[in-house]
Write a structure and sequence with these properties.
Chains A, B: It holds the Pfam family FAA_hydrolase. Chains A, B: Its EC number is 3.7.1.2. The structure is a homodimer. By secondary structure, chain A is of the alpha+beta class. In chain A, about 15% of the residues lie in helices and about 30% in strands. In chain A, the strands form 7 sheets. In chain A, strands 6, 7, 8, 13, 14, 16, 17 and 22 form an 8-stranded mixed beta sheet that branches. In chain A, strands 9, 20, 21, 25, 26 and 27 form a 6-stranded mixed beta sheet that branches. In chain A, helix 5 packs across helix 8. The longest helix of chain A has 15 residues. The N and C termini of chain A lie far apart (about 55 Å). At the A-B interface, helix 4, strand 7, strand 10, strand 11 and helix 6 of A face helix 4, strand 7, strand 10, strand 11 and helix 6 of B.
Amino acid sequence: MALIRSWVESANVADCPFPLNNLPYGVFSTADEAPRCGAAIGDMILDLAGCEAQGLLDAGGTFAQPQLNGFMALGRAKWNEVRARLTELLAEDGNRDLPLVRMADATLHLPVRVTEYTDFYASKNHAFNVGVLFRGPENALPPQWTHMPIGYNGRASSVVVSGTPIRRPMGQLKGETGPRWAPCERLDLELELGAVVGADSAMGERVSVEEAEDMIFGYVLLNDWSARDVQAWEYQPLGPFQSKALGTTIGAWIVTQAALEPFRSPGPERVNPLLPYLQESRPGLYDLEIGWTLNGQVMARTNYNVMYYSSAQQLAHHTSSGCPMRVGDLLGSGTISGPAPDQTGALLEMTEGGKTPVTVNGEARTFLENGDEVALFAEARGEGYRIGFGPCTGRILPARP
Amino acid sequence: MALIRSWVESANVADCPFPLNNLPYGVFSTADEAPRCGAAIGDMILDLAGCEAQGLLDAGGTFAQPQLNGFMALGRAKWNEVRARLTELLAEDGNRDLPLVRMADATLHLPVRVTEYTDFYASKNHAFNVGVLFRGPENALPPQWTHMPIGYNGRASSVVVSGTPIRRPMGQLKGETGPRWAPCERLDLELELGAVVGADSAMGERVSVEEAEDMIFGYVLLNDWSARDVQAWEYQPLGPFQSKALGTTIGAWIVTQAALEPFRSPGPERVNPLLPYLQESRPGLYDLEIGWTLNGQVMARTNYNVMYYSSAQQLAHHTSSGCPMRVGDLLGSGTISGPAPDQTGALLEMTEGGKTPVTVNGEARTFLENGDEVALFAEARGEGYRIGFGPCTGRILPARP
């Protein structure tokens, strides 16, 4: 697929993350108007509530809401219809009288009201590396890992939009004679892609991988901040809890499945066949470069197609017990790590649990310091265009003792 | 405290679970009217939306909503004001012209829109017994267990009201040569009390145990249905996931903290001192008999005051990382078990992992069979009155292969 040219000239520039091929959805406000839904195009935001008010498209008034849940609930046929209509309006011969807002003049908000949040653990490199650090090499990869996408329920209330500061948590840390109460000393990031669920499933019913794919509205960048010392002390046997509740940052732009369609990519070879309910009829991953910077320095770059399970497989597994899913559910892919240290999505892995510091702008780092800023990035590259996700950043504030 | 007599005579009967001392809140509908909030009194429901419509009390219109979240969000001063007003209206010399509905003519609904659901693990007997079965006696009680109330995030979408059938889940079960896909063979209940959070806390801020207690609106019976074979295969290292997502049943009536106030009770002796952020200035447990029946036969009876951590301590710990809490959050106490087999809150414990069947109406049982009905019960006993919770039941439907 080639670049689809737009009359919004900034969308046609070679390295623009938001060409007409992309059209990610978000929620924005301006000095004079409350949060509403928009689509990114070049360096502008198309005011979708404004478009609907002008009679240019029909989304049942949902674009005037301060999150995309209402629009998502209208279903895939409506998603497709609106995408086709926006592509028409913004094409070179489109409508030049659209309500556009300069992105520089807008404030971006959380694009969805996150109903529930689940975090998976689907990069084999990451699972193995972290397993070695927490449990030793012989128990590194749990026995069920190659048979199911394991995950845990995270805390939806702690999901925040890119740019929100993240406070270093206090917590119980393991001491010599018992736990001590102290600021987290091993604060980390996790480089992930989040899938946004755009449809409900009923309690007691299972969803196939194909149906699951149809339920996914789109993807966001996701940083699952982690307090590794709190995690080590608390996580057995019930899994991570407060170590993962200090904040999870997502990007402000939801890149739709439609925009990523040309980038479908197979994943790594399977160690063993999957049970039928997890088998895919076509690749569910994407060829998508993804990485992160610390205080502006690129720390790691890898590809989303290293993952062992796709979001559709994760969603299908999520319903295997009959668990009902709802519009606005967010599924974290799990930390995305390639095999090499400069492909890892967490400092825990990159520094081998803090044993091998890395250098950031000349300073040694094992874990995150106060004032550090982490930014995630991702990009799919087509012929003459890119699909970007916008920033996903957070800066560390000192703990409140 | 003695019985407070009501002009609703059925509320004054000796074994009535809903005397005027109780006044639990719920949501009900009738043949001719949609779900709205009510309070149980004797064998009647006081229509609180109707009371407000008649100008008898003021709750900002929240009682006309189909869940109690709006009322809870009004805050503790309003909770106290409304409770005092209802006590006045229903007293012997009260208002005999109130909108009452016979409980037998009403359908009860989920009383809250559950925002997020967290399940704890706070009975030392249960944690030890289950730990032996899953990990052996030497690793039974995790090392942090006596220092913090451990828990995991459950799945709010799977919380249903008493009486909702529960479908036996399919799942991955560990086999000889790899997992197999089969109906759960070790389906279990968990006897718990759920605390309903009635106030928000801000991200990045911690809540003390005293503040946490003030945030708790009330308590419900809670059965956290569990697929033990799915759990055993999936739960390491991230904790239980699909094994706990098949359904969680809560009672339809929220018993307020105010009603339980006379029953405050200290818990078991502490193994070690707690860190200051978990210390209580007064007992946070209640002297509350709690138990369960299987197909009508009483299987176990114990007391909520065997728990090692109170809901207020759990809520305080939940915010230790700065995790924001919201109105409608539900905190499961963890399975409530006394030391003896006929005091255990799960079949896993009662049958020693299925090794020692129990007899139910003359039939042997290790785990739950299709058609089985589990009912939880709880009661605090005052002088001449009882505080009941109403039923919390569920019947097992066969799996959908």
